[in-house]
């Protein structure tokens, strides 16, 4: 019986990271997916596990000495310390390991906050504002700027993938890919227009190649079961492009 229980969400790029790692490594674990629409992360039962009401949370009860770990970066560090880094060559090369960690921290500190900034700005718009073409609305201007920031940041990853679109670092699937792919898949499925963006050709190929990976299909279920697609950014993106061309 597995000693590991993972509390996570199918629609959070943060929460999907540990599940991808565990599936990729073939490590048995108890999966407990919380339903955000029912506010299960705020339930009395879950708040006893994590008083902040956030996922992911990993519980490891090995040897009768349970440890509870929250924050995805801390969980990923714990898992790689316990079971080893993804990618045999990466685990034996300090240089490659440093590159992997550099990309992982860049995603954590720059790309993800930008993406959530865009989501927050978009969510604050009315349906009419999402398709406004005047370019005068301050909330729309803020959302436009947030969108441009995300696309410009994604270009950096597109450049990293120009020589090969399989992996973000080296020649093996690594922590860097685990950090990046859940977000990219969710951005694709909320119709952010990645495929239509000529500056992101390599990134789109990277998504297409890696979405077939079993650990990705198992570890990011919200993309495949429709949970993520209930958010549709396409009217805003279309209006954004028209505003920009005016």
Oligomer type: single chain
Our Rg estimate from Cα atoms comes to: 19 Å
- CATH C-level class of the largest domain is Mainly Alpha
Helix content: 55-70%
Mean pLDDT: 92
Number of strands: 4
The stretches of 5 or more residues where confidence is low (pLDDT under 50) are none
Name the strands of the widest sheet in spatial order: 2-1-3-4
Assigned CATH architecture of the largest domain: Up-down Bundle
**From the helix content, strand content and strand pairing, which structural class follows?**
alpha+beta
Q: How many domains in all?
A: 2
The percentage of residues in β strands lies in 5-15%
How far the N terminus sits from the C terminus, by CA atoms, comes to: 61 Å
* H and E string: EHEHEEHHHHHHHHHH
Q: What would the CATH topology of the largest domain be?
A: Glutathione S-transferase Yfyf (Class Pi), Chain A, domain 2
Model description:
With 246 residues, the protein is of the alpha+beta class. The chain has 2 domains: 4-84, Glutaredoxin; 90-245, Up-down Bundle (Glutathione S-transferase Yfyf (Class Pi), Chain A, domain 2), CATH 1.20.1050.10. The protein has helices at 13-25, 44-49, 72-83, 88-91, 94-123, 127-130, 138-160, 175-189, 201-210, 214-219, 221-224, 234-245, and strands at 4-8, 30-33, 57-60, 67-70. The longest helix is centred in the middle third of the chain and has 30 residues, at 94-123. The mean pLDDT is 92. It holds the Pfam family GST_C. Residues 93-236 form the GST C-terminal domain. Residues 2-87 form the GST N-terminal domain.
């Amino acid at each position: 019986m597995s000693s590991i229980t993972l509390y996570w969400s199918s629609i959070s790029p943060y929460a999907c990271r540990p599940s991808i790692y565990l599936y990729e490594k073939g490590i048995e674990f108890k999966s407990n997916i919380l339903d955000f629409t029912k506010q299960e992360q705020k339930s009395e039962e879950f708040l006893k596990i994590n008083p902040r009401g956030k996922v992911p949370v990993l519980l490891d009860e090995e040897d009768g000495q349970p440890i509870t770990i929250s924050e995805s970066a801390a969980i990923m560090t714990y898992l790689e310390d316990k079971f080893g880094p993804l990618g045999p060559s990466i685990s034996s090369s300090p240089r490659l390991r440093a590159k992997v960690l550099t990309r992982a921290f860049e995603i954590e500190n720059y790309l993800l906050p930008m993406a959530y900034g865009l989501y927050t700005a978009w969510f604050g718009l009315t349906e009419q504002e999402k398709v406004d073409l005047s370019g005068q609305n301050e909330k729309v201007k803020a959302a436009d700027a947030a969108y441009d920031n995300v696309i410009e940041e994604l270009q950096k990853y597109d450049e990293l993938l120009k020589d090969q679109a399989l992996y973000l670092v080296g020649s093996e699937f690594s922590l860097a890919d685990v950090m990046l792919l859940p977000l990219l898949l969710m951005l694709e499925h909320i119709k952010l227009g990645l495929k239509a963006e000529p500056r992101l050709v390599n990134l789109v190929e990277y998504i297409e190649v890696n979405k077939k990976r079993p650990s990705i299909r198992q570890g990011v279920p919200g993309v495949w079961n429709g949970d993520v697609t209930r958010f549709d950014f396409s009217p805003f993106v279309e209006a954004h492009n028209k505003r920009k061309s005016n």
